[in-house]
Amino acid sequence: MRSTVQWLENVAFEAKSESGHSVVMDGSPAYGGENRGPRPMELILMGLGGCASFDIVTILKKARQEISNVECQLQAERADEVPAVFTKIHLHFVVLGKALKEKQVAKAVELSAEKYCSASKMLSSGGVEITHDFEIVEVA
């Protein structure tokens, strides 16, 4: 996997992925940014949510659960000192669907956290405390 990051101006950068996608990252105005895009650490948090959500959707579809939406709400804490690494991250999944089995959703969340989510495994092996929970919303 490859990526490039090109400096645009001030503290703004454009990252391009090997698959041809790009995203602009920018710092906060306090650091000379213009708020033109997410901060790099926000992208890491969003990537974790995307990785875990991908797993959960895939696992629930294989389990023949009739899901209509999965939302991952993430909350993170960072160290006060530099480098301001993540110290704790909590993922809360809101799973919407028809007649979803709580046991299947719990298993999907657990499998993502313990086995499949590369981002979660990488961050937790680096000392980040990662926790998960979920709620099921029945839809008609």
From TrEMBL:
Sections of the chain in a coiled coil: none
InterPro entries: KH_dom-like_a/b, OsmC/Ohr_fam, OsmC/Ohrsf
Annotated NCBIfam families: PRK10738.1
Entry protein name: OsmC family protein
